[in-house]
Amino acid sequence: MKPIPPKPFRKARRLSPLAYLRAFRRDLLSAQPERLFAAKMAEYRTPFFRSYLLGEPELIDLVLRARPQDFPKSDRVSEGLRPLLRRAVFLSNGADWARQRRIIDPAFEGGRLRATYPSMQEAAQAMIARLTPGRQDVEPILSHVAADVIFRTLFSVPIEDRLAAEVFAAFRTYQRRQPILNAGAFLRLAAWVPRGIGRRGRRAATAIRAAITALVEARAAELAAGTAPDDLATKIMTTADPATGELMATQEIVDQVAILFLAGHETSASAMAWALYLLSLDPDAQRSAAAEAKENPEFSDISGATFIRNALREALRLYPPVPMMVREATRDETFRGRRVAAGSPLVISPWHTHRNPRLWEAPDKFDPDRFARPGVPKSGYLPFSAGPRICPGAGFAMVEMTLILSVVLARFELRPMPGREPVPVAHLTVRGRDGIWLELQPRRAAPKT
User: Fold this and answer.
1) SS3 call for 425
2) C-alpha distance from residue 400 to each of 39, 110, 312, 393, 431 (Å)
3) Quick check: 71 pLDDT over 90?
4) Is 33 left (phi over 0), alpha (psi -120 to 50) or beta?
5) How far is CA 78 from CA 196, 252, 329, 391, in A?
6) pLDDT digits (tens, 9 = 90+) for 241-277
7) Backbone angles phi, psi at 166, to 5 degrees
8) C-alpha distance from residue 419 to each of 11, 170, 173, 438, 441 (Å)
């Protein structure tokens, strides 16, 4: 199958520090100079900070896998997310992070995926019942179904549930006001300086946490009465830390549910939207994916949908939902002969690494078959991060996304819309600046059931 390029994304020319800061504030992705895509390491100096982009796989492996304890998540990066996530596992470090992972990880073990799959199926079938032929912005459709999956698997309620609907509505306001990175990631700002999301974003975060708290408290009452369903929320709330025997307190659980909703909803929706767009550009790839698609696939069918999974992997490579991650050096380091001072921000960028011509053949081309061939570069593919901090829900997400794409492709043929090519921008995840518009037409061949 001949690989084809997606719509070229923007790569900036060399910019002055002031111009870069302006472009960074306006649009993180288009501010990135083209030379960074092949850089082994890049140092960026301004009068205010010095940061480092790590592009060499050995450096990425050192930070994420070999010595993660020496390169924790930067508190400065998390400032804009604190109103919503507080001390969630995504933001914590050290012993606090390790304790949270000991409690959360069992909820996403392999056996649990089969147990949550019926809830995923229900959400997918509810989506396909709503979906009609014609020209569609698929981003809100996929955001809705991804959120529905989270509510059904976490709390055994559909998104139509009142509290679930409140969380979803507030989150739509929050996510558009929260960039993945902002100046606070690099500048040492005084405590009184306003951060990131603004008043509307903070109100949305408060509303989200209030609704999640109500869901958690309702589940606690069900657990006390012995009537709680066996879902992810029950698993997290009843799993004791094996090191201490302690359960999470209510507000700790709210923190974790908030990040599970954010990560499980935003990243999956982003990846699925870009995957459908890329398949719409390549009729051969779309036919290969549709040949595996089923209107209501069983759990066992997911492992057989090899091409659909590889198309998702390729979408995650070209448009990683989380385009950049920031760690912080806890002590002076020497990287590639250069001194990196303690406290320096270290940027690991899937946005750059996934299109690095030194690591990938034809890096800008959509080629799902590359994941059927050997040679995927170690530490060159990081859609879910890597090392101890790899996303605990990565397996969950791949099952969910494969299911939903299967259901869509079994029912509809996808066509791009000329003149509405999506331009990637970074909010909480990589989204289309004006949405991702496709034309959906009923598939002529009889779908498999």
Assistant:
1) strand
2) 34, 13, 11, 10, 19
3) yes
4) beta
5) 10, 17, 16, 17
6) 999 999 999 999 999 999 998 888 889 999 999 999 9
7) -65, -45
8) 20, 31, 27, 11, 19
Contacts of 110 (CB under 8 A, 6+ apart): 395
Residue type, 161: D
Amino acid letter at 335? F
Alpha carbons within 13 angstroms on the beta-carbon side of residue 211 total 22
**How crowded is residue 314: how many other Cβ atoms within 10 Å of its Cβ?**
25
pTM comes to 0.90
Query: pLDDT, tens digit, for every residue of 123-175?
Result: 999 999 999 999 999 999 999 999 999 999 999 999 999 989 988 888 877 77
Reading the block at residue 425, the tokens are 């921008």
Alpha-carbon distance of 281 to 289, in angstroms, equals: 13
CB 316 within 8 A of CB 383: yes
DSSP state of 392: T
